[in-house]
Amino acid sequence: ALTYDGSSVTAIRGFDHLEGETLGLIVDGGAHPDVTVTNGAISLNRSGSVVQCGLKYTYVLCPSRLEAGANDGTAQAKMKRITDVGVRVWKSLGGSIGRSLDPEDLTLMRDLNYRQPVTQMDTPEPLKSTDIIQNFPKGSNRDGFIYITGDDGFPMNVIALFPQVETREAR
Hints:
Oligomer: single chain
Number of helices: 0
Order of helices and strands: EEEEEEEEEEE
């Protein structure tokens, strides 16, 4: 990744090695549409004085299966329903949370909500170090996996997950 930090610009040169590649951008702390390197340069839709750009990738976090306990011992191999998840993040923005990365279930992913009512709509939200309480997609399964994923270019640093889980006692 490259960071430009200087006077306000609408174009940046020096990307000859990435000719024809599509780059993700964060401009002055806010998301910017992807751009393609042409003649070793990129053009911005709006001017910016701090521009971070690089090749895009998708991150995925999937901790071990949940163990929420049960009246008769372990919750492993029992039906579980996650209702809410607390996500503790450090200097983070973006990301989605859900129970599966299966393409048929991706519509059940929930965007992590960092937005504060006091932040003006045209102002990017600053990086957050906080706990986010997020509703979890409906449904039950035996796995109890929690997935966090994203490709928006913002940093994602998950410190801890605090799920609320209902375990069915019958196997």
